[in-house]
Amino acid sequence: MTTPHGSIDTPQFMPVGTQATVKSLTPSDLRTAGAQIILGNTYHLSLRPGAERVAGLGGLHRFMAWDGPILTDSGGFQVFSLADLRRVDDDGVTFASHLDGSLQRLTPERSVEIQELLGSDIAMAFDQLVDPGLPAVEVGEAMERTHRWAERCLAAHTRPDQALFGIIQGGVDASLRQRSTAAIAALPFDGIAVGGLSVGESKAQMAATLDVVADALDDDPRVRYLMGVGSPLDFFTGVERGIDLFDCVLPTRVARNGQLWTREGRLNLRNARFVDDPAPLDAECGCETCRDYSRAYLAHLFRAEELLAYRLASLHNLTYTLDLMRAIRAALADGSFESLRETVAGQYQRAESRPVSQQ
Amino acid sequence: MTTPHGSIDTPQFMPVGTQATVKSLTPSDLRTAGAQIILGNTYHLSLRPGAERVAGLGGLHRFMAWDGPILTDSGGFQVFSLADLRRVDDDGVTFASHLDGSLQRLTPERSVEIQELLGSDIAMAFDQLVDPGLPAVEVGEAMERTHRWAERCLAAHTRPDQALFGIIQGGVDASLRQRSTAAIAALPFDGIAVGGLSVGESKAQMAATLDVVADALDDDPRVRYLMGVGSPLDFFTGVERGIDLFDCVLPTRVARNGQLWTREGRLNLRNARFVDDPAPLDAECGCETCRDYSRAYLAHLFRAEELLAYRLASLHNLTYTLDLMRAIRAALADGSFESLRETVAGQYQRAESRPVSQQ
Fold first, then answer.
1. Which residues 64-123 in chain B show a CB within 8 A of chain A?
2. Among B31, B32, B57, B290, which would you mutate to test the A interface (most chain A Cβ atoms within 10 Å of its Cβ)?
3. CB contact A49 to B (< 8 Å)
4. Does B20 touch chain A (CB under 8 A)?
5. Given this model, what pLDDT does residue A355 score?
6. What would the pLDDT profile of A168-204 be if each residue is shown by its tens digit?
7. What is the chain A residue with the closest CA to B278?
8. Which strand (E) or helix (H) includes residue B338?
9. Residue A19 at interface with chain B, using a CB cutoff of 8 Å
10. φ, ψ for residue A225, nearest 5 deg
11. pLDDT per position as a tens digit, B193-233
């Protein structure tokens, strides 16, 4: 997959840089961890520092000093997560800013405009996400609105150096997902995203929904992006159903809480057993954290609430995640995908059997 | 000046790594910023993670992955700053831990033992610091106790690979300082420190006290360390009075509050004028922060309370401070010390005319 700021090996994971920074890390750290593309958030950046301000400062790449590809989301997910603070109409969404309570307005046209001002390599259509547990008629209405907004995003989009991806909605209802896939795939988007998952549904529902989408897309050659996913095992679920791109705050968020992903499974550094452990987090990992520090040191930093804890843990979890995606690509090439999945499942499945809410 | 972990150019500034980390930075960052030696805190490290634990993990250098020289303080200053939570007797100090309120005991012998367990290159004698504004009799009593404790520290010290420095006390009273200097200089310490300054006295009092010490030390060849100082102009005050070593949390603490030290003077990044400023913090600085980011980006990170703000600001302020120390060394060599001081004073003196409390 190619973009104006470089090409991307797929399947690929995108670290999330919500506020023009992947929390605690520099672009140089991200490169070292293996990142090829990162994600920025339209909702957050439009409120602060403001899309026009970022454009005036030379665009998001220059602003945050990341010269690789950037994908921006459309704001749809964040508006959904504001819950009671928003009002949706056919033209767009009015919501109260989480920063100062001021009323803000996002429409398909404004979302596209913001993303063009930010100058991302890949923009996302503005969609309406709903709780998949709502009655089918409500899920269906949001889906139909998402389709109308998709056409308005395409009409509003002007930057020839920026790709625009459509988003499939429809909750976990197979017939709605099928209709949404057909509707979005019929439009001239540069890529196709699956939205509305990883918001409380079960692992089985996520897999079944991805099956429906994969069937309906059939041999559509465009890049496929599963939004807001995931965890180590979710990548296998997605990749075997044709997913090329993933993003999730999970690796960095859990890192800041002291949960480290390793080839021995999850380690919680707040557990007392680590305070005297001289071993590295993961003996097979090549990141700076594993090279230079013991579990005991990291356990100390977390207890002392030292800023370096969040940085070293984030660097490791991203390295782990990007190493895993690279291993998945290699396994696809040499036919060892199932064997790799079994290895990773042995490390992670027990902790992943519960329903997830990862964003 | 040489230590088991490398030699040090003097005059030199030591970044403070209170809890086995210079907040938000890695040893690699410190090297890049120009650090040759760092400081660790006996009080904090003995409470958490514990000196015996650090020793069991291979010592402080290995624990925090810094292979250069380390100086540890003795705990005297932190115990002083606990104010009402401590009780001093002739044998030592009993105090309540700031972590859990548990009663703890520090004596000259235990302070030396902790520092030997940590394995620092330079240990400090355990002293009794008092407010220099107290009546002379109280300042004098604490000074006399400091002298008795100095002898006990020397008697307790066993590591041949660790230097031990004595500490001069005596507040801002010239006759007490003179007596303390003579008493400490008469003992076989490897270096001489000036304690009890930068705790609320005026700039003029600090300078006058350093004059007294310099006169009393005369041509004593040992390394001289001014504890807990300082700010850009304080370095000149100290260096012209023979000081070789400085340490202070000021550069990193003010950095985390958004105050950046530059060749244009202090910049407060929380000031609204920076949110659209595309310039680097300091066009003459070679640090990563100045190379890659604008003031506008840093102003955004501080407003968004992003972890990267504290890291990039700390890296810059330490680079600035260590660059300044290097410039002072060069100025001493080529006779331009006064001209350099005038340049820096033009940038900083207005903000430094008030009394300071820097630790």
1. 64-65
2. B57
3. yes
4. yes
5. 38
6. 999 999 999 999 999 999 999 999 999 999 999 999 9
7. A57
8. helix B337-348
9. yes
10. -125, 120
11. 999 999 999 999 999 999 999 999 999 999 999 999 989 99
Which residue type sits at B219?
D
Model pLDDT, residue A49: 98
Whether B28 and A297 lie within 8 Å, measured CB to CB: no
This prediction's pTM: 0.96
Confidence class of residue B350 from pLDDT cuts 50, 70 and 90?
Answer: low
Pairing mode of beta strands A86-88, A93-96? antiparallel
pLDDT at B349: 74
Q: Note the ipTM here.
A: 0.96
* Close Cβ partners of B194 (under 8 Å, ≥ 6 residues apart): B167, B168, B209, B210, B213, B224, B225, B226, B227, B243
Q: Determine which of A18, A292, A300 to mutate to test the interface with B (most B C-beta atoms within 10 Å).
A: A300
Contact flag B311-A311 (C-beta cutoff 8 Å) = yes
Q: Is B247 a catalytic residue?
A: yes
Percent of chain B with pLDDT over 70: 97
Kindly write down the DSSP assignment for every residue of B263-276, as one continuous string: BTEEEETTSGGGTT
B contacts of A296 (beta carbons < 8 Å) = 49, 53, 57, 63
Residue B282 annotated as catalytic? no
pLDDT confidence of residue A79? 86
Nearest 5°: the CA angle A174, A87, A93 is 80
**Ranges of each domain in chain A:** 2-248, 254-349
B288 in reach of chain A (CB within 8 A):
yes
Whether B58 contacts chain A with CB within 8 A: yes
- Reported as a single tens digit per residue, the pLDDT across A63-89 is 999 999 999 999 999 888 887 778 999
What's the CATH number for B2-248?
Answer: 3.20.20.105
Provide, as residue numbers in chain B, all residues whose Cβ is less than 8 Å from the Cβ of A303: 48-49
CA torsion sign, A182 to A14 to A105 to A138? positive
